[in-house]
Amino acid sequence: xxxxxxxxxxxxxxxxxxxxxxxxxxxxxxxxxxxxxxxxxxxxxxxxxxxxxxxxxxxxxxxxxxxxxxxxxxxxxxxxxxxxxxxxxxxxxxxxxxxxxxxxxxxxxxxxxxxxxxxxxxxxxxxxxxxxxxxxxxxxxxxxxxxxxxxxxxxxxxxxxxxxxxxxxxxxxxxxxxxxxxxxxxxxxxxxxxxxxxxxxxxxxxxxxxxxxxxxxxxxxxxxxxxxxxxxxxxxxxxxxxxxxxxxxxxxxxxxxxxxxxxxxxxxxxxxxxxxxxxxxxxxxxxxxxxxxxxxxxxxxxxxxxxxxxxxxxxxxxxxxxxxxxxxxxxxxxxxxxxxxxxxxxxxxxxxxxxxxxxxxxx
Length: 363
Known about the structure:
Blueprint: H1 5-23, H2 25-32, H3 36-60, H4 66-74, H5 76-81, H6 84-108, H7 115-160, H8 178-192, H9 211-237, H10 248-255, H11 266-295, H12 305-317, H13 322-362
Helix pairs in contact: 1-7, 1-9, 1-11, 2-8, 3-8, 3-9, 3-13, 4-13, 6-7, 6-11, 6-12, 6-13, 7-9, 7-11, 7-12, 10-11
């Protein structure tokens, strides 16, 4: 179940791009207005730093997943204890992503379809992909899904160019200032920092030495795509309207009309969202299942899928509406998971692991 550096690149791009571009730009614009593009640059730099830390942590023990390396670094019991917030993150985030997908599809397409039906259909597809081929099938699908997502983004940019107004990006910085720009960068940064998951993928790399280059390039490509979407949104709609919309990118796409012939391109953004969510959900399902099997020493990791999937399904039904999922993103994810799980603990493990490895080499 090995993957190549090329597959890792598209995994990172697909996982990082779709959900970040659709779900995080509204709160970012609310904070930093027409300077949101600067916030995206700060967010990208922070995400690259998180990716670098995660890669270096993974490469300390390239033959081990994060479940194993954390116990190697901290010892059996403390290593397992520090994994608890990660399993909380993997389970809850998978449920929330599934619900966000269902809410988006429900609002844009199937308003008369029961929400649980939309959730169940996607969950069945994710379970099938994860169970049938594991990480290899997910990585191979990303080789197709990634370029399709990139091509769709290029089309959005080209079709919206006639509605661009560069003056909507002015004035730069003076009306906002550094603090609002930094605040606006935190939400997209927290989503882009999901690249931390490379610590679970290093053990599956055919050539672990490609991990740093391919994962960083994947984050950079996703960041450029998100920056392009941000500039497009502001130049088409200005700095005020996008802050009031849940999905401003979808609103921009629905606004596109070329020669009264190319219209109603909402389906394009829905397609980009669905295929991106499929990759992210499948990757989360694999990591959660494989990690659970390693934690409890279950030989066949695929058996864990059959009880993880029902838990995720129930978790996806708990939010009452989109406000609940956004509250999760603002409080639990933004204020706790991002600084602790994605930044603090990996940095601490990297420092301790590097010291231990050097001391062992000297001995």
